[in-house]
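Ops channel
N.P.: pipeline sanity check, posting one input/output pair.
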C-alpha cells in the first residue's frame, strides 16, 4: 500500500478513541496519530471513561485494549455495540489464538498484538479508516425494486436503507461490502475480494464471518431474504448484486 493510497485528507478529520490503561503506551499512540495529521484524538484509561466519551462524541474509530481496570475490551465492545456500529481495533499484549477468535467473532475489524511497530499501527488505522469511510462512490444511493413499497433506497452517504417510512441503519462492514458489490454490480465478486475489502485479508478465517454479514445484509435489502433476488450467492465463487437500473 502506498502513502498516496492511505493519505486521504478527509480521513484525518475522523475522531479516534484510544482506550488503554498504560499511560506511556497511550501517550505514544496519541503522538503517532498526531504526528501523522490526525488531530481529533480522545483517550480513556477505563471502560467507564470510554463510554462517557462515546456518549458525548461522534467517534469514527475505537482502538480498545483487552485488559482494562474495570472490565475488559470485549465487555466494552459489547457495551459500545448497544448504541454504535463504529469500527473497532483490539489492541492487546495477549496473542493467544482464542483471544483473536473471540474479538473477531464479536465483530471487531482488526486485532493488533503488542509489541508492534509504530508504522504497523499507523497502517492498520489508516487502512481501516480508508476501507470504512474512504471508498466513496459517485452515486450517493441506488434503488432496488420492492413489491411492498415500490422500491428500497440504499444510501451510501448516510449508511441507511430506506423502505417506505422506515430507515434501517447499515453497519460499517455492511456498508463496505455493499460499496464493493455495487461497484461491480451484476458481476461476480469473489469471496477473497470481499474479505480483502472488509478485513484487509483474504478469505482464510473470514469466510464464515462474511456469510453472516451477507445474511444480515439480505435481511435489510431483500423483500424475502430466504429467496433473494438481488444479493445472490454464486456457489464456489462469491456473490453478485443484481441491479437492473
Amino acid at each position: 500500500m502506498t502513502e498516496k493510497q492511505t493519505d486521504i485528507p478527509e480521513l484525518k478529520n475522523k475522531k479516534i478513541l484510544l482506550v488503554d490503561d498504560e499511560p506511556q503506551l497511550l501517550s505514544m499512540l496519541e503522538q503517532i496519530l498526531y504526528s501523522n495529521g490526525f488531530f481529533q484524538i480522545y483517550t480513556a484509561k477505563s471502560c467507564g471513561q470510554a463510554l462517557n466519551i462515546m456518549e458525548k462524541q461522534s467517534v469514527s474509530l475505537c482502538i480498545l485494549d483487552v485488559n482494562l481496570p474495570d472490565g475488559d475490551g470485549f465487555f466494552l465492545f459489547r457495551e459500545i455495540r448497544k448504541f454504535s456500529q463504529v469500527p473497532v481495533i483490539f489492541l492487546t499484549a495477549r496473542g493467544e489464538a482464542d483471544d483473536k477468535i473471540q474479538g473477531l467473532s464479536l465483530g471487531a475489524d482488526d486485532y493488533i498484538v503488542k509489541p508492534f511497530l509504530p508504522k504497523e499501527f499507523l497502517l492498520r488505522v489508516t487502512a481501516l479508516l480508508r476501507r470504512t469511510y474512504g471508498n466513496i462512490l459517485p452515486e450517493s444511493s441506488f434503488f432496488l425494486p420492492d413489491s411492498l413499497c415500490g422500491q428500497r433506497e440504499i444510501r451510501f452517504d448516510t449508511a441507511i436503507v430506506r423502505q417506505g417510512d422506515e430507515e434501517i441503519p447499515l453497519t460499517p462492514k455492511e456498508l463496505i461490502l455493499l460499496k464493493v458489490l455495487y461497484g461491480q454490480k451484476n458481476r461476480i465478486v469473489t469471496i477473497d475480494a470481499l474479505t480483502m475489502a472488509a478485513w484487509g485479508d483474504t478469505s482464510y478465517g473470514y469466510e464464515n464471518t462474511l456469510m453472516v454479514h451477507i445474511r444480515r445484509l439480505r435481511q435489510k435489502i431483500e423483500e424475502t431474504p430466504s429467496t433473494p433476488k438481488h444479493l445472490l450467492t454464486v456457489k464456489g465463487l462469491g456473490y453478485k448484486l443484481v441491479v437492473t437500473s
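N.P.: looks fine end to end. The longest strand covers residues 141-146.
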